[in-house]
Amino acid sequence: MISGEEPMNQLFGQTPLFLAPMAGFTDCAYREICKDFGCDVTESEMVSAKGFHFGNEKTRELIFISEREKPAVIQLFGHEPEIMAEAAEKIEEDLGGRLLALDINMGCPAPKITGNGDGSMLMKDPRLVETIVRTVRDRVFVPVAVKIRKGICENQDNAAEIAAAAEAGGASWITVHGRTVDQMYSGKADLNCIASVKNRVSVPVVGNGDVTGADSAVRMLRETDCDGLMIGRGALGNPWIFQEIHAAIHGTAYQKPGLEERISIAIRHAERTVAYKGEHGVIELRKHIFYYFKGLPGATEIRRKLQKATTLQELRFFLLDTGNLHEYNM
Ligand SMILES: Cc1cc2nc3c(=O)[nH]c(=O)nc-3n(C[C@H](O)[C@H](O)[C@H](O)COP(=O)(O)O)c2cc1C
Tens digits of per-residue pLDDT, 289-301? Predict the structure, then answer.
């Protein structure tokens, strides 16, 4: 378990790369694959604190962290400090040393989340932000972090104020996605906003939004002075992005994987998913596998074929059937 300043210094000493929490994508199998490629910190998708409160079985499944992945961050969403603290306590009890930290979702713009006052709605209330962080932090040993957005809308960009409230409550680090809630995922992430948070707080700041490779990663670091980077969509079907960015930051060599390696990584990803979720994991895996080929010539045809795979054997057969893929220029 880590707590206190020293482990935070260790974690942030080398510009850590985080895999962004992505509901429906960042399950344990995929997180393991990202770790294989140098991702420093993996995080679960958002988990409902209320779901824990009511003993929801699906919610419990979301907190699974494997031996290979451990330790990892679990992300919680909710808005009632006591319920969140109770969930945090239970998660820590269940996971023990597998839990690296807890992260509180203060950025989700989805109406089914904001409609209950959760996710990005917390950014409307700095005092509640501080209370939630403090209440959770008082009940667990692991560090508590928050993930916020630029603000609610363009003329309500209060990320720095919310970050300061979270810091006052005891947050160990702050991740900032440089888009407003209104923007959802459109437009571009605002790097100035991340820089303004970095200027305001003394805890580490993780920059997030539109990092899709070495150039955007270096730019984010240069323009915001942030302490770590979080990568979401840029890692889909592209888990080696962590290797690519580490190489760019530390000046080491990097070789983009060729087609055969891509296929073998996709197969590894599929095998691990089925190992954790059973054969029915193949259905939800299709969208992931498709990302490994997105943008390549013939991607539509590949997607069509992928939609038909219902078992690991079918999926593996399809992936190994590279005959018509050889012509693709990687
Ligand atoms: C499909 C999808 C699901 C997401 N789920 C979550 C989530 O559960 N918790 C969260 O804090 N952010 C979630 N996000 C936001 C990402 O963590 C990240 O902040 C955002 O995608 C911007 O980073 P990127 O440009 O690197 O993708 C999700 C994003 C996507 C695309």
Answer: 999 988 877 778 8
Helix (H) or strand (E) holding 17: strand 17-19
Per mean pLDDT, which of 31-45, 55-69, 309-323 is the most reliable? Answer: 31-45
Choose the residue to mutate in 148, 233, 290 for probing ligand 1, maximizing ligand atoms within 8 Å of C-beta.
233
Same domain, 294 and 149: no
Q: Which domain holds residue 319?
A: 259-325
DSSP code for 138 = T
- Ligand 1, residue 231: give the atom nearest the CA: 26
Catalytic positions: 108
Give the strands of the sheet with 174-180, arranged side by side: 17-19, 228-231, 205-208, 174-180, 144-151, 99-106, 72-77, 43-48
Cα-only R_g, the chain: 20
Which of 250, 267, 282 is the last residue before a domain boundary? Answer: 250
pLDDT digits (tens, 9 = 90+) for 28-43: 999 999 999 999 999 9
25 lines ligand 1 (CB under 6 A): yes
Q: Is residue 189 part of a domain?
A: yes
Distance (Å) from CA 44 to ligand 1 centroid? 11
Ligand 1 center from residue 139 Cα (angstroms): 27
Separation of first and last alpha carbons in the chain: 42
Residues 52 and 166 in one domain: yes
User: In whole numbers, what is the pLDDT of the chain averaged over residues?
Assistant: 93
- Candidate of 17, 18, 19, 22 to mutate for ligand 1, largest count of ligand atoms within 8 Å of Cβ: 22
User: Could you tell me if 44 and 136 lie in one domain?
Assistant: yes
Ligand 1 centroid to residue 204 C-alpha, Å: 20
The span from the CA of 189 to the CA of 183, in Å, is 9
Task: Flag whether 330 is in a domain.
Answer: no
